[in-house]
From TrEMBL, chain A:
One of its GO terms (molecular function) is glycerone kinase activity. Keywords: Kinase, Transferase. It comes from Streptomyces clavuligerus. It comes from the Bacteria. This is Putative dihydroxyacetone kinase subunit 1. One of its GO terms (biological process) is glycerol catabolic process. Residues 8-330 form the DhaK domain.
UniProtKB/TrEMBL annotation, chain B:
InterPro entries: DhaL_dom (IPR004007), DhaL_dom_sf (IPR036117), Dihydroxyacetone_Kinase (IPR050861). GO terms for cellular component: cytosol. SMART domains: Dak2. GO terms for biological process: glycerol catabolic process. Residues 6-216 form the DhaL domain. The keyword NADP does not apply. This is Putative dihydroxyacetone kinase subunit 2. GO terms for molecular function: glycerone kinase activity. Keywords: Kinase, Transferase. The keyword Cytoplasm does not apply.
């Protein structure tokens, strides 16, 4: 039986946050009474504070992206559970600028409700607040489902691009409009050959026989809509690329930004090999990979899989991507 | 007796007593139509609110000034307790209703008016719809709140708040009964499909209970007081 290295299952999130604050004390401050992390440094040009958050178990999302150039604050919930509205409310109040605060919210019911309640409370305090909903997951693109597509890997790209835009002094409305445009140009798809291990039971979240892939797996141990017989990596990545490109608007100058994120227990060795196949798949279609990022960004505990995110880019978006950033998990 | 802070504080305390008395019934309902934590969550919010009313705030200042107090103050305590202390989603959604009630009561001055009740519940309904995405008919707390809002809005301005709340609570319980006949599209019972058929929504029960506790002691007492020739106050 698999197990996690933890003092107790119930204290794992709080223990990790304390350790995180110790490791990155130069970049972030942890506020245990309200349960959020705040950036120590942030551009004075910002007119809007940028806040995100969501369940734990997806590290480095969101805590790893708090810092100059990205998030002003992150609100981590318990494992796979939404943060409490009070965390979001207090964090937003603490980092709001003259024009208020932007919430970057992954599209899950609990996150929507808790960020929504916090926004209602902020309105009573006269703090302007807008929400950018990230709903990039192609696997959950089913018009019959009222809640819509889930939010996944694209969240990191949007946090980076909107953080850079906030640093340029964009107002709340401009930032939200830009975010909505970018979110519409961003899609993700994840596959897994092994399920995550539940921290409470120590058992796999679902059974997956050898030689089979979950095509469109979620980040909370949700099974995919369908399984696929395992196939060579080039064929698999080509299949994923075809699905993603069909869902994206055509890039104006044929340019894309790619994020290859391990879901928890896939090696970098494999992830770079995935990027090689992605590059070849795009070359073959006459598309250019303008920027690419490989590593762990949005994980799902120890899920044995990876997520491909593509964003059709232009000069503006590429410029925002290249802007300076200094966070625990992303800096240049 | 005017419907000032004494009235609203008594309302909050009576709500807390009622929920404590029927917590196991609420939990049983929620086990049939949800995840079973609703009674506990509702009670924990009310214990927190009553604690603040009893003790004042942690920093030693009285959360509710002793006297004179305005009608919105105990409602504000109730709102903050539900927004800050209660886990899950339906508890904090109740907090939104209380927050709007407190804000509307504050805008109307020290005494609770029927107008403030209508405006506050109406805005609470709108806030819960914005945040939760549900609509009346989805088998959620809105199915009790929506008819109550309509009933309050239909009361002419001179209607005493207690009479208006009495009418609202009657329509809220009608709404609760209708939820039993529905299948859920949102919220806790939506995962259960037909298995929740026949079970009223616990959140709707919570709303009806809240409205009822404002008036129940008064309506029970009124005939006795009238018979004795005593004035019938608006105080529960």
């Amino acid at each position: 039986m698999a197990r996690y290295f933890a003092r107790t299952t119930g204290s794992l999130v709080a223990d990790a946050l304390e350790g995180f604050a110790r490791a990155h004390g130069d970049l972030v401050a942890y506020h245990p009474e309200h349960g959020y992390l705040r950036a120590r440094h942030s551009s004075p040009l910002r007119r809007v504070g940028v806040v995100s958050g969501g369940g734990s178990g997806h590290e480095p999302l969101h805590t790893g992206f708090v810092g100059a150039g990205m998030l002003d604050a992150a609100c981590p919930g318990q494992i796979f559970a939404s943060p409490h509205n009070r965390q979001i409310f207090e964090a937003s109040r603490a980092v709001a600028r003259r024009e208020g605060v932007l919430h970057i919210v992954k599209n899950y019911t609990g996150d929507r409700i808790n960020f929504g309640i916090a926004a209602e409370r902020l309105a009573h305090e006269r703090v302007p607040c807008a929400r950018l909903l990230v709903d990039d997951d192609l696997a959950s693109d089913d018009p019959a489902v009222a809640v819509g597509r889930r939010g996944t890997g694209g969240t990191v790209l949007l946090e980076k691009l909107l953080g850079a835009a906030a640093d340029r002094g964009l107002g709340l409305e401009e930032l939200t409009a830009l975010g909505t445009r970018l979110a519409g140009r961003c899609r993700s798809l994840a596959v897994a050959s092994a399920p995550p291990t539940s921290p409470t039971t120590g058992r796999p979240a679902f059974e997956l026989p050898p030689g089979v892939l979950e095509y469109g797996v979620g980040i909370h141990g949700e099974r995919a809509g369908r399984t696929l017989a395992d196939e060579p990596l080039d064929a698999l990545v080509d299949r994923m690329t075809t699905s993603l490109l069909a869902a994206l608007p055509p890039p104006p100058d044929g340019g894309l930004i790619a994020l290859v994120s391990g879901l928890g227990s896939v090696t970098r060795l494999e992830l770079y090999a995935v990027l090689r196949e992605l590059g070849r798949a795009l070359d073959g279609r006459g598309l250019a990979l303008r920027r690419s990022l490989v590593g762990e960004f949005v994980t799902a505990l120890d899920t044995g899989g990876f997520c491909l995110t593509l964003l059709t880019t232009d000069e503006e978006a590429t410029g925002l991507y290249d802007a300076p950033v200094s966070t625990p998990a992303w800096r240049w | 007796m005017a419907e000032d802070g004494v009235f609203t504080e008594a309302w909050v305390r009576e709500f807390a007593r009622s929920v404590a008395a029927c917590e196991s019934e609420l939990t049983a309902l929620d086990q049939l139509a949800g995840d079973g934590d609703f009674g506990v969550n509702l009670r924990s919010g009310l214990v927190a609110a009553v604690g603040v009313l009893d003790r004042g705030t942690a920093d030693g200042r009285a959360a509710v000034p002793r006297r004179p107090r305005a009608a919105h103050e105990p409602l504000r305590v109730l709102a903050t307790a539900f927004l800050d202390e209660v886990g899950g989603t339906s508890g904090p959604l109740f907090g939104l209703l209380f927050q709007e009630l407190a804000a509307a009561a504050r805008a109307d001055g020290p005494r609770l008016t029927t107008h403030a009740l209508a405006v506050g519940t109406g805005r609470g309904l709108a806030a819960i719809r914005r945040v939760g995405g549900a609509a009346p008919g989805d088998k959620t707390l809105l199915d009790a709140l929506h008819p109550a809002v309509l009933a309050l809005a239909a009361c002419p301005a001179p209607t005493p708040p207690v009479r208006a709340l009495d009418r609202a609570s009657v329509t809220a319980w009608d709404g609760v009964r209708r939820t039993a006949g529905r299948s859920a599209r949102r919220g806790r019972a939506s995962y259960l499909g037909e298995r929740a058929a026949g079970v009223p929504d616990p959140g709707a029960v919570g709303v009806a209970l809240f409205l009822t506790t404002a008036v129940r002691p008064v309506t029970v007492l009124a005939p006795f007081l009238k018979a004795a020739g005593a004035p019938v106050s608006g105080r529960p």
